[in-house]
Structure formats: C-alpha cells, structure tokens
Amino acid sequence: MPPYKQDFTYVTGTEPHRLRTKAIISAHPEVRSLITKNPTTALVILACVSFQFVVAYFLRDQSWWLILALAWLVGAFPAHTLFVCIHEAAHHLIFRRRSWNIYAGIFANLPTLLPSAISFKNYHLKHHAFQGIHELDADLPSRWEAKLINNYFIGKAIWLLIFPIFQGLRVIRCKEVAVFDRWVLTNIVVQLAVDVAVVYFLGWGAFAYLGFSLMFSIGLHPLGARWIQEHYLVLDKNQETYSYYGPLNPVNLNVGYHNEHHDMPSIPWNNLPKLKALAPEFYDNLLYHKSYTKLFFQFLFSQEIGLFSRILRRERGNVTLADISTPDTDILATKG
After folding, report:
1. What digits encode the pLDDT tens for the residues 113-124?
2. Which of 292, 304, 282 is nearest to 229 (CA)?
3. C-beta of residue 34 within 8 angstroms of C-beta of residue 264
4. pTM to 2 decimals?
5. Angle between helices 153-161 and 163-170 (to 10 degrees)
6. To the nearest whole percent, how much of the chain has pLDDT over 70?
7. In 3D, which of 129, 116, 130, 126 has the Cα closest to residue 85?
8. Which residues are CB-contacts of 236 (< 8 A; sequence separation ≥ 6)?
9. Given the DSSP bridges, would you call strands 288-289 and 243-244 parallel, antiparallel or unpaired?
C-alpha cells in the first residue's frame, strides 16, 4: 500500500463550528460586542495598493531576475494582505453599507491582476455554510486535482506555483451559485481596464512584478502554507480546522485565527484575538500551527500529506442557499 491517502476522510454530522459558536455565545454572551465593522481596513487597502503600484513603477525597466526576486521577497506580502482585505470585504466587515464593501474588494483587487474579488466572495460564503461538502465548497480540492498532484514534492510544488488556476477550476463543480452576476462582471471590466493600463503606461516589467507577487502570495512561498494551515489534516486526523498563532499574523491581519473566524465570521480581523482571549476554554485545547515556513516544507516533502488530507461530509444539513445571503454569517452558524 502507498504511504499516502487515496481518498478524502469522510465524516457524518455537522461541521464543528456551528456547535462551538452556540456554546461560546451561551458561555460568553459578551462576545457579541466584538461583532462590528472596521473601516480602518480601507486604509490598509489604500496603503497596500499604493505600495504595489509604486514598486511596479520603479521596476518597469529592471531586469527580470530583480523583478522576480522582489516579487518573492517583498511583493508577496502586500499582495497577501490585500487578499485578506478582500476576504474582509467579502464578509462585509469594513463598512456598514454592503455596496461599499463590494467597492473596497474590487479596489483591493487592482494590483493582483486577476478579477477575483467578487467571485471569491460568492464562493467563500458557501465555504462557511457548506464546509466539507464537495459539490458546494470551493475551498476543497477537486478529486481529479488531488489525484493529479499526488503526494510527491514536484506535484505539490507545481500545485502551489499555479494555485490560482486550480482554485479557479474548482468553481466548475460547485452548484447553486451563478458564475456571473452584475458585480462579477463589474469586477472583470474594471480589472481588465487596470491591467491594460499597467501594460500601456508602465510596461510588461511592472505587470510581471504584480503578477508574480500574486502567484507567490498564495502559492510557492511560505505564505502559501496558509491554505494548508486552515483545513488540511496535518497535526490531527480528526481536527478539521486549524489556527496559526505565529509572527506573520500582524502582517496578515490575523488571518491565522481561522478557528475563531469560522466560529464567528462577523467579527473583523482586529477583534479575533479578543475572541480567543474571551473564550480560552474553547481554543486552548485545539492544536495550532506556529510556523508557516515549517508547514510549507512539511507539506512539500512529507508523502503523508497531500490534497486528500481533508475532511468531507455528504450531508449538507438544514442550511439552504438563502441562509448565506446575509453578511452576518455567524448567525447562520448558530442554526442547528
């Protein structure tokens, strides 16, 4: 028998976060005070967007090796932060008006070249509602994807390198949400216009810096270990979600607090450590990661970890598509 899994791990029953949300609110009703908006995230977006375009401008005529090196060493970090900001906008955690959050997500998308902010929002909310349902959760790798990549170094390295492509292909299998709506089309039109403007005014060198920054920020880079950290069965075959409590959380807007985020998705990034502090008995007993770099190499070189190292469930419970239309998705999580 090969030393690696050839299928996902299947479980019955609801995903763990709904039950924990109920228990946390019952034991600590004061956590509701953490449910708010954080408009300062808009300033983070403005700073990162400005930084990326300024660096791209100065790299417009530089050699390709320098562009590639700076994209990996520098650009990956603001690009990743912008992805986290898009995530905050998807949950409507920046402004009270839903439309302002949509605009914020589209603006944060600009330096990352691929028009993904609104599509991510549509499918990410389903990930919270239907965690582990293969036909509905685009965060899960497709079966063909897991078989293709296998559990060897070269396959996993390629998977990380072109992760956005695999992520985009997953939506084909997901049901019940239209691929296109007016906001998705708006995102595409705006992004394509910016992409053309970057090439026309700044040149291909600037375009390459922004593109490589995106690829590294979510792929072949220690930051790419975030996708492994969140739901892959690395530390325990039964724990479905993991947090990361390491030094990159301040840079990444506390995105490592993933158990906390799934438990209370309407709490913005700045309050997630407060949730953990208010309800330590619910989190101190959970395993967590401390190093993206360690996890990055562990994922690449361990044949015991692959894309099949995920938990799936066949029952969707009593959650319907209408339930995820509200931005206050922690209310959804409290349903039985």
Report:
1. 999 999 999 999
2. 292
3. yes
4. 0.92
5. 80
6. 93
7. 116
8. 287
9. parallel
> Would you say 15 and 246 are in contact if contact means Cβ atoms under 8 Å apart?
no
Q: Are 275 and 32 in contact (CB under 8 A)?
A: no
269, 35 contact by CB (below 8 A): no
For the stretch 284-313, pLDDT in tens is 999 999 999 999 999 999 999 999 999 999
Span between the terminal Cα atoms of the chain, in Å: 40
Largest CA distance in the chain: 59
Helices 76-90 and 204-217, interaxial angle, to 10°? 70
How far apart CA 159 and CA 286 sit, in angstroms, is 28
The conformation of residue 147, written as its DSSP 8-state character, comes to H
User: Is the Cα torsion angle 44, 49, 51, 52 positive or negative in sign?
Assistant: positive
- Rounded Cα–Cα distance for residues 24 and 111 (Å): 38
Please name the residues in contact with 201: beta carbons below 8 A apart, sequence gap of 6 or more: none
Ramachandran quadrant class, 203 (left: phi over 0; alpha: psi -120 to 50; beta: rest) = left
Q: How far out from the chain centre does Cα 274 lie?
A: 21
* Count of positions (residues) in the chain: 336
89 neighbors 183 (Cβ within 8 angstroms): no
Is the per-residue pLDDT at 318 higher than 60?
Answer: no
Q: Quick one: pLDDT band at residue 82, thresholds 50, 70, 90?
A: very high
Q: How far apart are CA 129 and CA 314, in angstroms?
A: 14
Tokens of 68: 């590639």
Output the CA–CA distances (angstroms, integers) from residue 189 to 26, 50, 99, 116, 192, in the order listed. 46, 21, 17, 12, 5
Cα separation, 328 vs 208, whole angstroms = 38
**Separation of alpha carbons 194 and 21, rounded Å:** 41
Q: In this prediction, what percent of the chain has a pLDDT beyond 90?
A: 82
Q: Which of 115, 120, 232 is nearest to 185 (CA)?
A: 115
Do residues 215 and 67 lie in contact, with contact meaning Cβ atoms separated by under 8 Å?
no
